[in-house]
Design a protein that fits this description.
Length: 336
């Protein structure tokens, strides 16, 4: 199968390229930066019809990443992620390429879903400044103001984007859905949870918290853990994310003519505090420091159910977080 891979020089894209080639697929690499043996093109401005010639399926990894927590970031994410995806889909329509695997993200869910003893399944109420200042970091029920507990979220969880990046990921899924309807095409949206592993960007504004902690340990500094460290996430290894992509590439043609979303997660929740402790222990570094600092827009808990990906793609994560995060303490990182 001939695969056009956008973002082929990136952290995740480079691993997808290797695994897809190992499984016998012909990978056409495309990136706005240099890509070994690939095409250096900008999805927003360069005509893509020639590189799509003879392609069976597109794996769309290219994106401006990071949180985008300032409203001034909105135009940049729209210009890169929204326009780039729209131009790619238009070119696929012109050239008759009908299958897409899209890199989406768990950020589309915002702060996930919770259970209230009185009101059942609820979205969290916005966290109050007086609660945060008093060290109450878990959100309240939006109806009664009482305690709520996080629950695993499925792919039918409503979108609640909280940042520029999250809004752009929602937009990418909507563009893909419209393209499927207009063209009778098929797409799989892989909603990555917290991806980590060798080759991830080091301590930059666009790196995840695992890389930030790892970089602090390399400097001999303790990881600075915000809030009380009880924020819950699902950390999924980049090799597992690559596997999910290749499985999706091999099966998207058999999916319905719309966007089918799948959570890509390890299925083993970890708190931020636990992750920092594992990294520090494996790297023989100083113990993490729980600072109590907070940012009102941060997500408290978001944990996925991996069941749909297992049923629909046969995907199950192979790297357990306690093992993969321990290896991250000495894994090589990418410096930008």
């Amino acid at each position: 199968m001939r695969v056009l891979l956008t973002g082929a020089a990136g952290f995740i894209g480079s691993r997808v390229a290797v695994l897809a080639a190992e499984r016998g697929h012909d990978v056409v690499a495309l990136d706005v930066h240099d890509s070994d043996g690939g095409h250096r093109l900008d999805l927003r401005h360069d005509r893509l019809d020639d590189v799509l010639a003879g392609v069976d399926v597109v794996c769309h990894q290219a994106a401006m990443v990071g949180n985008g927590v300032d409203a001034q970031d909105l135009p940049g994410y729209a210009a890169h992620n929204d326009l780039g995806t729209a131009e790619l889909l238009a070119a696929m329509a012109r050239t008759g390429v009908d299958d897409l695997v899209l890199a989406s993200s768990m950020v589309v869910y915002g702060d996930g879903r919770y259970d209230c003893a009185e009101h059942g399944d609820v979205p969290p109420a916005p966290r109050r400044e007086d609660d945060l200042a008093a060290g109450r970091f878990d959100p309240r029920c939006p109806h009664c103001g009482g305690d709520i507990t996080w629950r695993r979220i499925g792919e039918d969880t409503p979108f609640r984007p909280r940042t520029s990046y999250a809004a752009s990921k929602v937009a990418q899924e909507h563009y893909a859905d419209a393209w499927c309807t207009l063209q009778g095409s098929r797409a799989i949206a892989l909603r990555y949870h917290n991806v980590y592993g060798p080759g991830m960007p080091a301590d930059t504004p666009y790196s995840g918290v695992a890389a930030i902690f790892r970089s602090a340990l390399e400097r001999g500094e303790p990881p600075q853990v915000f809030e009380d460290g009880g924020q819950t996430r699902d950390f999924v290894h980049v090799d597992d994310v690559a596997l999910a992509n290749v499985l999706a590439l091999e099966q998207v043609g058999g999916h319905p003519s719309d966007v089918t979303p799948y959570n890509v997660a390890s299925g083993h929740p970890f708190t931020i505090g636990e992750m920092a402790t594992v990294l520090a222990g494996a790297g023989s570094g100083p113990e993490p420091v729980v600072t109590g600092d907070y940012r009102g827009f941060d997500v408290r808990h978001v944990v996925a159910s991996p069941d749909a990906a297992m049923e629909g793609l046969g995907f199950r994560a192979e790297v357990q977080p306690e093992d993969g995060l321990a290896r991250l303490a000495t894994d090589p990182l990418r410096t930008l």
